[in-house]
Specification:
Length: about 140
């Protein structure tokens, strides 16, 4: 899902933006795996992943521990609606890519959104929770 990857890529963009001039990163679709978990009437959990991803990113990093951010704050757009979103960064690291000789960053990112805020309320009348857990493993490489 393009939008999820954009949000995760924002985490990577903000890392450099917080330290110096902004840098653009391209999401690596072969190493980026957005997935989700959603309620099914309180009796089970639906899990799924998106097979393709791409994106670019802007946001604010917060909660630094040992030089790495623990949160990214920005917005998420789904179905033409934009709402604030906070991503919990559980793992974050940048290295010099050995082949491309550019900065390569990766993160494991988690968030919970209320899908009703994005106009998706199917199943609500049947007791479905509107909370959706997002899990995004993302890698992106600097364009320059």
């Amino acid at each position: 899902m393009n939008v999820l990857s954009r949000l995760a890529a924002a985490v990577l963009f903000a890392a450099t933006a917080a330290q110096a001039a902004p840098v653009t990163y391209n999401v690596d679709p072969t190493h980026t795996y957005p997935s989700f978990e959603a309620d099914h009437m309180g009796i089970s959990t639906w899990r799924g992943k998106f097979d393709r991803s791409s994106g670019a990113f802007k946001g604010t990093l917060e909660g630094f521990t040992e030089g790495a951010p623990t949160r990214a704050v920005g917005t998420l757009e789904l179905h033409g609606r934009t709402n604030p979103a906070t991503l919990d960064i559980r793992k974050f690291k940048c290295i010099q890519h050995p082949m491309y000789k550019r900065e390569d960053c990766g993160a494991d990112v988690y968030a919970t959104i209320d899908r009703e805020q994005f106009g998706m309320d199917a199943g609500k009348a049947y007791g479905f929770s509107m909370a959706v857990d997002l899990r995004i493993q993302v890698e992106a490489i600097a364009t320059k």
